[in-house]
């Protein structure tokens, strides 16, 4: 059954890099949120949905870590920026390629800033039908220190939000890792 | 495309009666959550989903309100109970009929107790893939007095939860009404 653009459900999935493996690997919880969306919501109705992948990069407070000198030239700044961009694109490639294989329409883009603020801002701008977020499922004690993006977005995002907790068998030794 | 039982997504929708119109009318937010599920998730993939309607009735603390005497006989209690049951069934009828018309499989049942506790208990028992809750979208000030079932379930239900806020054009004069 053909589905007109108007009746396509637009699902925003916020994705980030693995804290353990780093770029270009997606975090366990991002992949979980994505797989849940495909398996439980999209299923065989591939023409009924469009997935919108948002990756928010946190500006590097200690951006010179990987460089030889703290006296950076304008070129150094430029290469730092393009390195970040390339990393973000590689991360998104995983999700876009998977969608392409399955035949689900998608878009993907990168923003910089505080993830929770940027996600809510992008929700206002894009107005998806649903926002899907992966979550590490931290306990209250761990949450105090690391904050949780999902908790903030559930409260503040101006669209329905669903949080997919990491499966317990996928939780790394330190649950703050992802 | 035929869908095997294993790949059917089971969505629990908690529904309650309208505080304005009373039984058998469903609350604005329940109907909103139901319609959202059909329009944004199920769409044409009617064989891919099963909807599970749970209606939780709050035990009437002031159960003699509608009776002539506070000295109730055992028969009075019995008729009270069957009246509640009939009301609950009428409420559920709206949702079940709608599913039947569209061709979506469903189940519906009634429980008594504190809605937030019962919903989380039923989630543990039934293990749906998703819990959909309507919400009045009350501000923090209003929430202090009426509590919110959705906020509790987002935190405690052992499955993904999505809260559908009432549309602003459907909000009654007093937002606590529903």
TrEMBL record, chains A, B:
The terms under GO molecular function for this entry are: AMP binding
**Gene3D superfamilies reported in the protein's UniProt record:** HUPs
The superkingdom of the source organism is Eukaryota
Cite the UspA domain residue spans from the record: 26-165
Instruction: Show the InterPro entries listed in the entry.
Output: At3g01520-like_plant, Rossmann-like_a/b/a_fold, Universal_stress_UspA, UspA
The record ties this protein, via PANTHER family, to: ADENINE NUCLEOTIDE ALPHA HYDROLASES-LIKE SUPERFAMILY PROTEIN
Protein's recorded name: UspA domain-containing protein
Organism expressing this protein natively? Gossypium mustelinum
